Amino acid sequence: METMKNKGRAIALLPIAVFLVIYVGSGIYYQYVKGEDQGFYIMSVVIAFTIALIVALLQNRTLNFDEKLKVMAKGVGNDNIVAMILIFLFAGAFSSMAGAAGGSVSTAYLLLDIIPANQLFAGFFIISCIISMAMGTSCGTISVLVPIAAATAEAADLNLPVLLGAIIGGAMFGDNMSFISDTTIAATRTQGCNMKDKFKENLAIALPAALITLVIMLFRSSGGGQVEHLQYEVIQALPYFIVLILALLGWNVLLVLGTGILLFILVGFLSVPDFSFSLVFSSMGEGCSGMYETIIVAVLVSALGALMKEYGGFDYILYVIRTYFKGKSGGQLGIATLSSAMDIATANNTVAIVMAGPIAKEISEEYDISPKKTASLMDIFCCVWQGIIPYGAQMLIALGLVADYKVSAFEVIPNIYYVYILLICAVVAIFLPEKKKKKHK
């Protein structure tokens, strides 16, 4: 490995420090000092990044304002960023269209109807895994399943924190593995690798973790409580499974999402009363609008990252990682540490990946780590911490939906078995020797 003489400049990372102080500081203040509901989401991440970008523009007087604009434009105009924005829009439209056509609810009820009554903990974990892979969103999965879980827990006298832990764990599995998840999109596009390759890399780590979790859940039997039969339409669930199959076959993600949107429109007209083109257009519009903040963050972070790189910030991070992390395993630990820190700080795994992506790419090139491995590590470690932190959107949504039951985050966190097992599997995978590629004669 070639040793870089350039140590970079630590001061170039000042905008990130400003962002963290504003965003995390306001979250702590509003959540714990003022006692506001979901205090970590009062300060808009867009505003926090805009302030950080202004700080970056005020730095480095060797470049004039026009030159800085050119640096930012080059970062934002990267083909991976453009593709990522387009995929975000399609993913938003797909998710919203699925909801309008009854797909998410019918899929949940269909799977719940198959699960034995005495294995509801394991059942909700499996359902959560499948739905989050199909929907591509952990928050959406939790929003669909938690009300069902709360009613089930009350009817069958089940431990609600354990059920919530199973759902959150399964949601993070799907968020990490789904081809249409915004975290997968961000991780693969920032590293320039195929989703199918990243999926295979992830599968070797996430699948064993999921299976071990499932075994634990099976041994922790939920008893023999009976659950009310819930009405669903099989036809409304079919598009999700078709989308999963097409994604696994390696279709282009835009083509997969486009096919899914068309299928849900067709299913809506066939199975939903009063379904109309006005509903189609409004639902797709709402879905795309829901992705605007993520898209703006991607643009702002790309511009900010380009400036910090130009100022020597990335070189400094590489210098620090090179000092404390040795060898290829050390480089992977560096990527894992970087991704984890970003997610803990931002409480948003997509934002964390977009922020860490350019720096992680520099680290991967320095340590000869493949793009698919880097994308996999970023996504896994961000999902691990996103599933654990009590101020993350996933936990806040889950607790908000069961507010009447007075469940605290600290009751749920010990029961999210999957994320802890995933963390162990990921660390073990970092230190396992890589298989040598066979040389073709």
In short:
The protein has 441 residues and is mostly helical. Helix content is 75%, strand content 0%.
Listing every helix as H and every strand as E from the N terminus to the C terminus, the arrangement reads: HHHHHHHHHHHHHHHHHHHHH
Q: State the helicity in percent bands.
A: over 70%
The total of helices stands at: 21
Structural class: mainly alpha
Number of domains: 1
Shape: globular
Strand content: under 5%
Largest sheet: none
Rounded average pLDDT: 83
Radius of gyration from the alpha-carbon trace, in angstroms: 22 Å
Enumerate the spans where pLDDT stays under 50 for 5 or more consecutive residues: 1-5
* Strands, total number: 0
**Through-space gap between termini:** 27 Å
Q: Could you explain how this protein is built, in words?
A:
The protein is mainly alpha-helical and 441 residues long. The chain has one domain. Helices cover 75% and strands 0% of the residues. It has 21 helices and no strands. The protein is globular, with a radius of gyration of 22 Å.
